[in-house]
Write a structure and sequence with these properties.
Blueprint: H1 6-17, E1 23-27, H2 33-41, E2 46-50, H3 54-63, E3 69-72
Parallel strand pairs: 1-2, 2-3
Length: 86
């Protein structure tokens, strides 16, 4: 599912799920814009947001400061270990 129109697409997802309390795992959370939309549409969701870029982490933390969001300051990938992040 593409989230070009995030609000509309996420509302459609809510209709498909039929609930407002899913567990959401968001990889590449960026600045928190989609996380914010998830919380608007799913007010009782538990969100695990993964982001590794220190520049966007600062923005994320200033935009999403509380609630059911568990920010994981790591990247998700196919290799288990440590890599240089550019």
């Amino acid at each position: 599912m593409s989230f070009r129109d995030e609000g509309s697409e996420i509302r459609q997802l809510k209709e498909l799920l039929g609930r407002d309390d899913p567990l959401i795992i968001e990889t590449g959370a960026n600045c928190g814009q989609t996380t914010h939309e998830f919380l608007n549409v799913f007010p009782r969701a538990e969100v695990y947001a993964f982001e590794a870029d220190p520049r966007t982490l600062r923005k994320f933390k200033s935009f999403i400061d509380s609630g059911p969001v568990n920010l994981v300051e790591k990247a998700i990938g196919v290799i288990n270990g440590t890599v240089e992040f550019n």
